[in-house]
Design brief:
CATH class of the largest domain: Alpha Beta
Oligomer: single chain
CATH topology of the largest domain: Rossmann fold
Number of helices: 5
Number of domains: 2
Strand order of the largest sheet: 3-18-17-10-13-14-15
Order of helices and strands: EHEEEHEEHEEEEEEEHEEEEEEEH
Distance between the termini: 38 Å
Strand content: 35-45%
Structural class: alpha+beta
C-alpha cells in the first residue's frame, strides 16, 4: 500500500480541496499521513520539537503557498522523499501545479509518470563561543537582519576563510538559486536558474552603494561574524525559524549534502513559470 504525505495551508479553500483529495486517495486504498500545521508567528529555533515525516512516504503533496512548501521541506528533513507543490498562495514559485489539475497530476505520480529535479539546500551551522550551537538546512535562504530599533548591522564576511568585506547594512541574505526569486529578489538580487551551481549573497539596503549582490560557487564556504558590540540581530532560516545572534557567534554556510527532490510534471517549464509569476510579456496570470 502506498503512503502519501499531505501538508495543507491553513485556509478554507485549501482544506476543502485537501478533504476531497484525501477521499480520492483512500478510495484507491492509499494511506494518507497529514502534517499538522498551526497558525502562529515565526518560531525561535528549538522552541518546540518538530515532527519528522515517516521515511516510507511515496511522495508529499503540499496544498498552499511557498511558506507552506518550505514548512513541508523541513518536515521531510534530509530524506529523499519526492515533493509536489499545489498552488494556493499569492505567488507560488515552488508550486508545480494548480488545484484544478490536482487529481490528474496525482494520477500521473501514483503511476510513476514523473521525474524529480534536485534543488540545492544550504547547510547552516552556528558556533557560539567556538562550540557547535545550532545546525539547520534551508531551501531558500538564511537572512541576517537587525531588529526594528537596531542600528546598521556590521557583518564581517569571509569566503573560504579569505576576508571579503564588512557589510554595513540592514542585513544580509544568503540564498540558493531556488531562493533567488524570494527575499533576495525583493532586495535587488539576481534571478538564478535552479540548476546553476551558485550561492547568492545579497546585502539589504547597504550603506555603501558599491556593495552589490555577489554569486559565489556552490563549493564555497561562507563564514559570517558580527562586529564587536553589534546587538539586536536575528538570523532566520527559510523564514520559518529564527535565532538571535551576537558577536559571540560564527555562522558557517555551505552547500548541503541532501537536496530537495521536487516533482516535475512533463510540459511545465521554469521560464514559463518565471515570466508568469513576474508578469513579464508573454506570461499569463
Amino acid at each position: 500500500m502506498k503512503k502519501i504525505g499531505l501538508v495543507v495551508k491553513i485556509d478554507a479553500e485549501a482544506n476543502q480541496k485537501a478533504e476531497e483529495f484525501e477521499r480520492w486517495l483512500r478510495s484507491k486504498e492509499i494511506e494518507v499521513v497529514k502534517k499538522e500545521n498551526f497558525l502562529k508567528d515565526r518560531k525561535l529555533l528549538n522552541s518546540s520539537s518538530s515532527s519528522i515525516a515517516p521515511p516510507d512516504l511515496f511522495s508529499v503533496f503540499v496544498l498552499g503557498g511557498d511558506g507552506t512548501f518550505l514548512s513541508a521541506v523541513r518536515w521531510i528533513g534530509d530524506q529523499s522523499i519526492p515533493i509536489l507543490g499545489v498552488k494556493f498562495g499569492e505567488v507560488g514559485f515552488l508550486a508545480e501545479t494548480v488545484a484544478e489539475d490536482l487529481l490528474s497530476v496525482a494520477e500521473l505520480i501514483l503511476n510513476n509518470e514523473f521525474i524529480t529535479r534536485p534543488r540545492m539546500r544550504l547547510l547552516v551551522k552556528v558556533l557560539r563561543n567556538g562550540k557547535d550551537f545550532a545546525s539547520e538546512t534551508v531551501l531558500n535562504d538564511i537572512v541576517i537582519n537587525k531588529l526594528a530599533i537596531a542600528r546598521l548591522a556590521q557583518i564581517k564576511t569571509y569566503i573560504n576563510d579569505h576576508y571579503l568585506t564588512t557589510y554595513r547594512a540592514d542585513g544580509l541574505i544568503v540564498a540558493t538559486p531556488t531562493g533567488s526569486t524570494a527575499y533576495s529578489l525583493a532586495a535587488g538580487g539576481p534571478i538564478i536558474h535552479p540548476e546553476v551551481p551558485g550561492i547568492i549573497m545579497t546585502p539589504i539596503c547597504p550603506f555603501t552603494l558599491t556593495n552589490r549582490p555577489l554569486i559565489v560557487p556552490d563549493t564555497s564556504s561562507i563564514k559570517i561574524r558580527l562586529e564587536k558590540k553589534t546587538s539586536d540581530i536575528m538570523l532566520t532560516f527559510d523564514g520559518q525559524e529564527g535565532l538571535e545572534i551576537s558577536d559571540q557567534d560564527t555562522i558557517i554556510i555551505q552547500k548541503g549534502l541532501h537536496p530537495v527532490n521536487m516533482i516535475s510534471i512533463p510540459g511545465r517549464h521554469y521560464f514559463d513559470v518565471l515570466k508568469t509569476k513576474l508578469r513579464w510579456s508573454g506570461g499569463r496570470v
